[in-house]
Design a protein that fits this description.
The chain is mainly β. It has two helices and eleven strands. The chain has a five-stranded mixed barrel with strand order 3-4-5-11-6. The chain is elongated, with a radius of gyration of 19 Å.
């Protein structure tokens, strides 16, 4: 068993390798009974592996070897100059929402969806794309003294979640479910490393 912070549930419960190469900058956190959300702008340094000009998708290789597809939003200037092999500093937006499902009856597992919307006729060219991963896990144990909630994912793995907020912890019981929704949206900047400010 592993102990992980509650905000890392998307990684553990969804079993998706969302690698962040450098510390994130900026962000917002919101909570409500049985629900918590965090959104952040992530800054990372990477190497471009490929560029799909039709969808404005840039495949990045992070320093740790992980790859990540990011859609370059209309804010990204000089998109046409990006090419494989370029080293870039990139900024993109991602969000995580955790929601408690009382007496959960949802199917335990993970789903992934993506979509894209284009600018309306007459507006400036541009598109917004996003990818969403939703994971549901069963609550199998709650230890209030240790501020610990154990959930079981679709593969039967038990994951320990640290829940520091006592009011949130009071709401959770065995038999509930936790749903994690991870959303990554568009790149807000992709700059050649030589031109990026430090």
């Amino acid at each position: 068993m592993r102990k992980i912070p509650v905000l890392a549930i998307a990684i553990a419960a969804a079993a998706a390798p969302f690698a962040i190469a450098q510390p994130q900058t900026g962000g917002a956190v919101a909570t409500a009974p049985g629900k918590a959300s965090v959104a952040q702008t992530v800054k990372a340094t990477a190497t471009i592996e490929s560029v799909d000009k039709a969808t404005r998708t840039v495949k990045l290789k992070m320093p740790n070897g992980a790859t990540r597809d990011i859609v370059a939003g209309p804010e990204v200037r000089n998109f046409d100059q990006l090419k494989a092999g370029d080293k870039v500093n990139v900024g993109y937006v991602e969000a995580l929402t955790l929601e408690l499902k009382k007496d959960g009856k949802a199917v335990v597992g993970r789903t992934e969806s993506s979509g894209m919307t284009s600018a309306a006729k007459g507006e400036k060219p541009g598109a917004v794309a996003m990818r969403e991963v939703v994971a549901v896990a069963d609550v199998v144990n709650v230890d209030a003294a240790k501020q610990l909630v154990q959930v079981k994912n679709k593969d039967g793995k038990i994951i320990d979640l640290n829940v520091k907020d006592p009011e949130q912890l009071k709401l959770i019981k065995k038999g509930d479910q936790v749903q994690a929704t991870y959303t990554e949206a568009v790149a807000i900047s992709v700059e050649p490393m030589a031109a990026a400010k430090k």
